[in-house]
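Justification of resources, computational component.

The compute hours requested in this renewal are based largely on the per-chain cost of generating structure records like the one below. Each record pairs the submitted sequence with a full structure-token output. That output is archived, and it is also reused by downstream analysis tasks.
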Amino acid sequence: MVKRAVQIHAGMLLVALCLQLSSAAAGKLLLSADGAGSSGDTISHSLTLVQRLEALLVQGNGSDVSLRVETPSADEVKMIQAHSLVLSLQSPVFEEMLLSRNSSTLVLKESSDCAAVFDKFIRYLYCGEISLRLDQATPLHKLATKYQVLSLQQGITQYMTQNLARDSPSGHVAGWYEYALQAGDVTLRDSCLQYLAWNLSSVLQSGEWVTISSQLLMSLLQRSDLILQSEMELFAALEAWIIQNEPDSLTAENALRAVRYAMMPPRELFRLQTQSSVLARYQESVRDLLYMSYQFHSASPLHMAKYFDVNCSLFVPRNYLSPVWGSPWIISNPTRDDRSTSFQTHLGPSGHDASKRVTWNALFSPRWLPLSMRPMYTETGAMQPTRVEGGRPRIIITPATSSADFAGVNFQKTVLVMAQQQGKVVVKHVYNFHQSTEENGDFLAEVDLYRRTSEYLTDSSLFLHIVVKPLYQTLITTKN
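The structure output for this chain reads:
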């Protein structure tokens, strides 16, 4: 009997909607003038239908169900007059609830943040659109997930991934990451984690940093693709996090052991040991790492590689923005012609190589052609025409000179590509290669550098940052 009653109400509502739509649209039908041979004309009143549906929700006309939204403490109650047809069509969860109800009122238990935006959620079911603020994204995503409104769920996930860079008073990316982890939203989780890793310097300076969970902290500390000024900047931020959160000893020790002390100059290591209260408290747990770091700085990397595993994370640099690791490169009008630049980096992070520098030459080509697209020669030697627009951007980075000091070192180049989002410059792409971005095959493949309004162009310029990372090779142990 309950199921039949719902179907009758739904049928009556559908008739009422049709009558209201036809009366509102009378005299407003527009036909396309495609001629007698056209495949068909289109009459559209979708906007009018949406307006009528919204009016039904606001006025409660023809309502056949009441939604009573309660918070767990029952200190807040919200009543919404709704229509079974609309709820059932938009949400399989609502459809099941309506079929099994025993009264005209559905009691819905929601958290305070979800109850606060529940009217927005219901309006979306009627109108197919929603307006929201950053702080409303998570509760609306919760509601869309709970009631299986997949279109809204996917739309809010997209909204969140597109607004990671937007400014907010207390920060929001870490909170969205924690929610995505709990909700099982892999797309949102990965987007948040990548944004935090690639824009870590700005995150460390925000009030959001000291509020992140220990799980997120360790996820970041273990990554080699972190983009920040230096390892010292990371240690200072970690120290602030430990002082603020007072974690248990195991958490603090694990976090401190994830710091790459060998990437700090010896003078900075000495300063930390004498001035850092956190390091003084947990020095025993990182004593072996500090000892290995001092050894790394005192001996040549080639000699170190004979006795130690220099491929472990302690000796692997992250993406440091400090001038000794690379250089920014602003390319004006990047589609115009080839460009080149030169810069210097230190040979390696080891104190043994502190006085040694390497000069690098970088060449940017906006329309480089891969071998498969290059001009072909006929038997008579005539060159076959080639579509220049088929080329793609490429960067080549090579040392200006060779040196015996390069032995045992593999230089990895990393190009950071910046873009403007929400009025802020953020890192959008990271490309790693040995000599040329051709090794990636997708360097700036989806980036439109010809459109003046492209988010990748600032004042018609492409903003890049080149990082050179020396990676040491473990050698066969010598026997005495």
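DSSP finds 17 helices and 13 strands in the chain. Residues 1-35, 381-388, 476-480 have pLDDT under 50 and may be disordered.
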